[in-house]
């Protein structure tokens, strides 16, 4: 492994391809050969909501809205987000995104990932779907 690596996020394979219309997920941790940091690009089409929320056991994450706007689920709250907002999320917080009318691009940054990962899918509905 080299002491540095340059990778264009748009060249990273789309791990969401064929799974959900209007969503791209380009996760570069292995592409950049990183031991301690993960950087990913998520592209949400207009009004596309990720129905799968998740949380972590150990890994803290930060998100940067690099274009567009939308909404972010944080446990039982929904927050509006816009370009250049930076959001830090503690591991135990359930989170998911929804693109606004023009869609939204999000760069996610995660810290060290435990062996085998620590992401857990939540089956709880978005707060505006509950009840």
Descriptive tags:
131 residues, mainly beta, 6-stranded antiparallel beta sheet, two-stranded antiparallel sheet, 8 strands, 0% helix
Estimate the mean pLDDT confidence: 94
The structural class is mainly beta
The biggest sheet amounts to: 6 strands, antiparallel
Tell how many strands the DSSP assignment holds. 8
Task: Note the overall shape.
Answer: globular
Describe what this molecule looks like in 3D.
With 131 residues, this protein is mainly β. The relative contact order is 0.25. Helix content is 0%, strand content 46%. Strands 1, 2, 4, 5, 6 and 7 form a six-stranded antiparallel sheet that branches. It has a two-stranded antiparallel ribbon with strand order 3-8. It is built from no helices and eight strands. The chain has strands at 23-27, 38-44, 53-56, 61-74, 77-82, 86-89, 95-110, 119-122. A hairpin with a 2-residue loop joins β4 (61-74) and β5. The chain is globular, with a radius of gyration of 15 Å.
Q: How does the SSE layout of this entry go?
A:
Layout (H helix, E strand, L loop, with lengths): L22 E5 L10 E7 L8 E4 L4 E14 L2 E6 L3 E4 L5 E16 L8 E4 L9
Antiparallel strand pairs: 1-2, 2-7, 3-8, 4-5, 4-6, 4-7
